[in-house]
Design goal:
Length: about 475
């Protein structure tokens, strides 16, 4: 029997052990999609305790705690941080097979040197040991980023954001990690949401423009997009829970925009033509600027009305959507590619049924500008577990080139989440090691090492064009 999470954790063969230790383990990180707060990075946030670093905003853990019957008071409520930590310690032993069990212990081991298993009995001592380190020197926000060997990270930012902290970080010569914004214009695409008109007014203020027509709206978007580019943005991101494609004339799209701006409601067809036209407009700009376009697909958000009314969105009440996407996605990508305006693109799905849909879509739109121009995104959200990661890599290997994959991201709000890269790297090395030891690929360590290092870091560095 193997020891629990020892040095060969998830590495089941000799080739995997060599690949991980000699090539993957010490590679730097480019975290090209996360939700860290740039303000907290600039101000070098000091955490008061492990609950603040671990449980604040982590809806992965919140969902597990709810499944364990924990009262909301100890999740998002007014219980003390110690009580919330103890509620997590009570839940964790029930999480057998859940990646949260591994992530929790990897974070305790790598950052705090705690190798005890966390449960209700060990929790009080672990609370004291970890908090002593967190509130001492060397464990502030920037320290945790540097300890994780991160060279660059991309936050997630609304077009109306001032990016003041990105600008300040760019000017801060003492902190050498690149902290770049990501353009996330979702609120400008959700034309029937009650947030659309207030957001459009804020867009007008941010761009110092008047927005009364669709043309003016697009000009304001472009103005903000070019401002993001000046600050260092190289990546866009779209949360497209469902994807539709419907072409229309500029006059028809303008009429839909005017209708909604005047208090009307767009029909499903009108919403589709608006989103199609606006995404197409943005895609062309991304290509012009050399950006990467990320499309996150197949989420079904805010399912529990009662809890959303109480806590708001992004609090752990989302799940997987099962709508069809192949035809609409093909038409959208082709509408850009036909005029040579398709940017570098990463396609993520939250539904594993669509892995092969996306995996085969990649080959339709590759280009000579860069290897792997269109990517199958890393296993995302509910799929960033062992089986989900293996499945995503196998699909990519079966349908395209795993060796050109840009690798893992954190997609997290926590400064302690960088051990997810280690988790991924161990799984990736083990998968490749199995192929080699089964005689399915040559035991060419020079080639294998270059593939592993590419997936860990080198591919992302070349793909995103980040100087780090």
């Amino acid at each position: 029997m193997k020891k629990f999470m020892d040095e060969n954790f998830l590495l089941s063969n000799d080739t995997a052990i060599t690949l991980y230790n000699d090539f993957a383990k010490d590679m730097p990180i480019i975290d090209y999609h996360c939700h860290l707060n740039p303000n907290e990075i600039f101000e070098n946030k000091q955490f008061n305790n492990i609950t603040e670093a671990w449980l604040y905003g982590d809806h992965y853990k919140w969902r597990a705690m709810r499944s364990n019957g924990i009262d909301e008071k100890y999740i998002t409520g007014d219980a003390s941080d110690y009580e919330k930590f103890m509620a997590w310690a009570k839940t964790l032993p029930m999480a057998i097979g859940n990646p949260l069990y591994h992530w929790t212990h990897l974070e305790l081991q790598r950052y705090f040197g705690v190798y005890e298993v966390l449960n209700e009995k060990t929790a009080p001592a672990i609370w004291e040991k970890v908090n002593k380190q967190l509130t001492g020197g060397g464990f502030r926000a920037r320290d945790l980023i540097v300890k994780s060997n991160v060279k660059a990270l991309c936050t997630t930012d609304d077009p109306i954001d001032s990016l003041e902290y990105h600008i300040k970080l760019k000017e801060d010569t003492e902190f050498t990690v690149k902290v770049l914004p990501t353009w996330r214009p979702d609120k400008g695409l959700l034309i029937n949401k009650d947030t659309f008109i207030p957001w459009t007014k804020k867009l007008a203020e941010a761009s110092k423009m008047t927005i009364k027509t669709y043309d003016e709206f697009l000009k304001a978007l472009e103005s903000r997009l070019r401002f993001f580019n000046e600050v260092g943005c190289r990546v866009s991101d779209h949360g497209l829970d469902s994807l539709t494609y419907k072409e229309a004339s500029k006059e028809e799209v303008s009429a839909v925009f005017t209708k909604v701006l005047n208090g009307g409601v767009a029909t499903k067809d009108e919403e589709s033509i608006y989103r199609t036209a606006t995404l197409h407009f943005l895609g062309k700009l991304y290509a012009e600027l050399g950006w990467t376009m990320q499309l996150h697909l197949a989420a079904l958000r805010s399912n529990n009305t009662r809890m959303i009314n109480k806590l708001g969105p992004d609090t752990g009440f989302d799940s997987i959507n099962d709508e069809q996407m192949a035809s609409a996605l093909s038409r959208f990508l082709d509408s850009l590619d036909i005029n040579n305006s398709l940017p570098k693109t990463i396609l993520y799905t939250l539904n594993p049924k669509d892995n092969y849909v996306l995996g085969t879509m990649l080959g339709n739109f590759q280009g000579s500008e860069i290897p792997g121009k269109v990517q199958l995104g890393s296993a995302w959200w509910f799929l960033d577990n062992k089986e989900g990661m293996i499945e995503q890599m196998k699909v990519l290997a079966n349908t395209g080139l795993l060796s050109r994959f840009v690798g893992m991201l954190t997609d997290s709000r926590s400064f302690l989440s960088y051990t997810r890269h280690e988790y991924f790297r161990r799984i990736m090395c083990n998968l490749i090691g199995e192929w080699v030891e089964n005689g399915e690929f040559p035991d060419d360590m020079e080639l294998l090492g270059s593939i592993v290092k590419g997936i860990c870091y080198d591919n992302a560095k070349a793909y995103f064009g980040i100087d780090c």
